[in-house]
Design goal:
heterodimer; A: 313 residues; mainly alpha; 13 helices; flat; B: 350 residues; alpha+beta; OB fold (Dihydrolipoamide Acetyltransferase, E2P); six-stranded mixed sheet; 8 helices; elongated
């Protein structure tokens, strides 16, 4: 009781000036710390997501490929996985196969989408139906498309049987070494995505520019060549980069429609860690895929930096 | 010389151009003046071939150019947005029209340089449009049109995106250039002050039709229609009836009897006298004044005072511009009217 009262008395008594200053200083420091960490807390939803969802997997991939965080084996820094990957001709073929599929699909998709977009600039009967139909692949998963293609152009598929009835030899379009079936299905999926982007890009070009070009003597072809094309390049090439990244890392369609050899890089990667438990090798392949796409992306930015600066009015 | 005969254009059910006949003389600057949506820009696009008329003839120097596509007309246009190509420099923009006509490269370089010097942009030839100010962009657009040495220059509100000061300066420059080069020009604007300052003749347009065509002075001093009187400048309308005064046609109103300027045809119906604010004079009231009123509003407008005068025994009030600055709100004043004035038909709302 006495102690309690004394303590309370103590609390009510004004603190000596030196102590007060210390308290104040502490309080200010605390407030500053809170302000600073409060800002960090506010950043968490965005920056935290980026760190967790994007930086971490890449880090994990990098560490795993050099034997530092692979599960199963002990942690030991080594470049063995890369040695294995670079020494194996199968890996080199897989890389080239994926690269070829990605490049061919990208070029064909962009060309087809650009052509379609230019066509859709004109009014013609059935234009809306064409736009609607072109969007169908957007809502159909590519795995289903792969099955559709398999039942249509695969050996024993619809066309093959029809050809057989007619006494013709149906060429091998799936499981082929050229990856034709894969390219077809990937294109089926990528063209509409590209088309949407290209249409938006072309629509964002002011109508006045086209009128001004015509007014100054440019015919339709030169309006396309001198005005539309250069102004559409940044947007269209962005679409091309997206298609490349998407198709270079494609797994489902190549694993379903690809040949036994060569396999696409992501298919090889899956085999390495699911069937052989070669985590380091799988990580190394994953890193090679990631580095390739990052290289393409930075090349894109490097090439377009000039154009972008000019266009961004 | 440009001739438009019976030109018509509709968009769906909306009539944009309702049968227009118009001639633009050689070396003349003719302005199409009207409110937004009156069809003036559509008419210009028809002349340029960017829009196809439903009916009518477009003739340039006596040749029907109706079937020529836009790129074969040689009627360069300066757009309201300037429509400069963002991926080309000033020099490349200006050279575009010559390149399309396959002019020799050496000639292109010479003509581009000369035209850029004409609009005082020679030191900015290597810049991109986004690196230019609004006025510089406007002059680039003008140079791009002028470099082709057009027989007809089309200007679609080329000054309306500029601030007032710059607009005023470029207006003078543009007019000087047009007169120096004796360029046949069609100018589209909704700004009546701009039209007055620039034009040899003005065609007032409303609802897709030409209301009247005349010199800026005629349009301002002797408007033939109430629409023109209202659209161009400020006007006071005073109702009156026709009378004969000393054998001259005149209109008697509640305030005074006016002789009629330009003697338009006067039907046996009510008319409106159209008085500009500076045509009415205010004076200190004396004993035997005709019309007296009280100043209900006085605004300072630089050289003049912009006054609103409530007329005694009348619901109407008149807008009066008086030089100097001696009038105050609440002052009483006698109103002195001119002897003659413009007259417009009362029911005309074209």
């Amino acid at each position: 009781m006495t102690v309690d009262t004394a303590a309370r008395g103590e609390a009510h008594r004004p603190a000596p000036p030196g102590l007060m200053r210390t308290q104040e200083r502490l309080l200010t420091a605390g407030r500053r710390w809170f302000e600073r960490s409060g800002a960090i807390l506010l950043l968490l939803p965005g920056a935290g997501y980026i760190a967790l969802a994007m930086a971490m997997p890449l880090l994990q991939l990098g560490l795993g490929s050099v034997g530092l965080s692979g599960s199963g084996s002990g942690s030991r820094l080594s470049l063995d996985a890369f040695r294995v990957v670079f020494a194996d001709p199968m890996m080199r073929d897989a890389f080239l196969f994926s690269l070829r599929i990605a490049v061919v699909t990208t070029l064909l998709s962009v060309a087809l989408a650009a052509g379609l977009a230019m066509l859709l600039m004109f009014a013609f009967p059935g234009r809306r139906a064409v736009i609607l139909l072109a969007k169908v692949p957007l809502v159909v998963p590519s795995l289903i498309a792969a099955f559709l293609v398999l039942t249509m152009i695969g050996p024993g598929g619809m066309f093959a049987r029809m050809a057989h009835h007619a006494g013709l030899q149906w060429p091998q379009l799936v499981h082929d070494r050229a990856g034709l079936g894969i390219t077809l299905v990937l294109m089926w999926h990528e063209v509409p995505v590209t088309l949407l982007i290209v249409i938006a890009v072309v629509a964002s070009i002011p109508r006045d520019l086209i009128d001004a070009a015509r007014n100054l003597g440019a015919d339709a072809w030169r309006v396309f060549l001198r005005i539309l094309l250069p102004l559409a390049v940044p947007g269209v090439s962005a679409a091309a980069v997206l298609v490349f990244i998407d198709t270079f890392g494609a797994f489902a369609v190549p694993s379903l429609l690809g040949p036994a050899y060569p396999q696409a890089l992501p298919v090889t990667m899956t085999t390495e860690f699911l069937e052989r438990a070669h985590w380091e090798v799988a990580s190394a392949i994953g890193l090679i895929v990631a580095v390739t796409t990052i290289a393409v992306l930075s090349l894109y930015y490097r090439l377009l930096a000039g154009t972008d600066r000019v266009i961004a009015a | 010389m440009l001739e438009l005969i019976g030109v018509k254009k509709s968009f769906g059910r909306t009539v944009a151009v309702a049968g227009i006949d118009l001639t633009v003389r050689d070396g003349e600057l003719l302005t199409l003046l009207g409110p937004s949506g009156c069809g003036k820009s559509t008419l210009l696009r028809i002349v340029a071939g960017l829009s196809e008329p439903d009916a009518g003839i477009v003739r340039l120097d006596g040749v029907d150019i109706q079937d020529r596509p836009a790129n074969a007309r040689q009627t360069p246009m300066v757009f309201q947005s300037y429509a400069l190509f963002p991926h080309m420099t000033v020099a490349e923009n200006v050279a575009f029209g010559l390149r399309m006509r396959k002019v020799r490269e050496a000639d292109i370089r010479r003509r581009v340089a000369a035209t850029l010097a004409l609009v005082e942009l020679d030191d900015l030839a290597g810049r991109y449009p986004r690196q230019l100010s609004g006025g510089q962009q406007q002059r680039t657009a003008l140079a791009r049109a002028l470099v082709t040495e057009p027989r007809l220059l089309l200007l679609d509100e080329p000054l309306s995106n500029l601030d007032a000061k710059l607009r005023d300066r470029l207006r003078i420059e543009l007019r000087g250039l047009q007169q120096r080069l004796a360029l046949t020009t069609v100018f589209v604007t909704h700004d009546q002050a701009e039209a007055m300052a620039l034009s040899d003749r003005i065609a007032v347009i409303s609802g897709g039709s030409i209301v009247e065509v005349g010199s800026p002075e005629a349009i301002y001093r002797r408007p033939q229609t109430r629409f023109t009187a209202e659209f161009v400048g400020v006007a006071n309308f005073i109702p009156g009836t026709p009378v004969a005064a000393n054998g001259c046609p005149a209109i008697r109103t509640a305030y005074a009897t006016f002789r009629i300027d330009g003697a338009p045809e006067i039907a046996r119906r009510e008319h409106l006298i159209c008085l500009r604010p500076e045509e009415i004079v205010l004076r200190e009231p004396a004993g035997n004044d005709g019309t007296v009123g009280r100043l209900v509003q006085v605004a300072y407008a630089g050289a003049v005072q912009d006054c609103i005068v409530a007329v005694d025994g009348d619901a109407a009030s008149l807008r009066v511009h008086v030089p100097g600055g001696r009038w105050r709100v609440g002052d009483r004043a006698a109103l002195i009217f001119p002897e003659s004035a413009a007259v417009v038909p009362m029911d005309d709302r074209a």
